[in-house]
Amino acid sequence: MLKKRKIWYAVSIVCLFLSIVCFLAGRSFHRQGNDFFRNVTLEAEGEPFEYQWIKSFFTEKLNKNNVEESAEEATSCTVWTELKNEPLFEDFSGRSCNADVIAVCGSSCNLIPFGKNLTKEDSSGCIIGKELAEKLFGHSQAEGKKLLWNGQKWTVRGIVSAPSDLLIVEVFKMADQIPFDRISLSLEKGEDRQLKGENFISQYGISAHVLRFDYLGSLSWVSEIIPGKWSDFDGWKQNFKEHKKAEELAENAKKSAMESLGLEDWKRGKQLVYGAILFLIAAAFAAPDSLLAGFSH
What we know:
flat; 2 domains; alpha+beta
């Protein structure tokens, strides 16, 4: 009998340990997912954003009276798109492969939260994924190497481990050749995501909507659907209706490689947290009665 109790005690400890491991791993994956969606994402409605608007946003702003404020606003906005299955060539050997290319106008740090940052002044710089670097150059130590895309040479400024099969290029000087359908806006702590996106759309008169990817991976929406008064049933209904519409837009939107990776991290995080809960329940059932009685006191 004593031996059996010891076995169940050991099982309980193991389950408790696994619960803690799963919970911590789940939190880590969730934070990784958050990194990809920390800013506001806008998606063009129908037609891509007009080249003339993109050009004026990044150039004419600097001619305004408040140059410092205008430059800061231009830096906090990145216009971009993802081009699928683009042919790439290594400059020296001619080695080639196809990969997804994210073309950006503006600072790349508004899209990818780590590694080197590309700016619109860097007309020949790119960031490459580790796996893609190995395909093109035969190794991942590719910083400073050159590749060919869209008839131009690009110099690798940095390498990222994830997304691993990806190329990000700064294309401001050829923006008239590329149809852009996304905008990323930097979001400061405490700022309202939806309001910032809607204000930007209204201010510049562009045809776009806010993509609430955060609705797909967190419970932030719960606080947003609460009306000013708890008894305002019409407010509850309207807010929930708006939430469902925004959730459907995000669910059905075309996902870039980075957005897909962020959503996958969130999914893994959820699965691990659910696993942590199951292991915790198993630990409670496996624990000897005397141990549970001790905790209850």
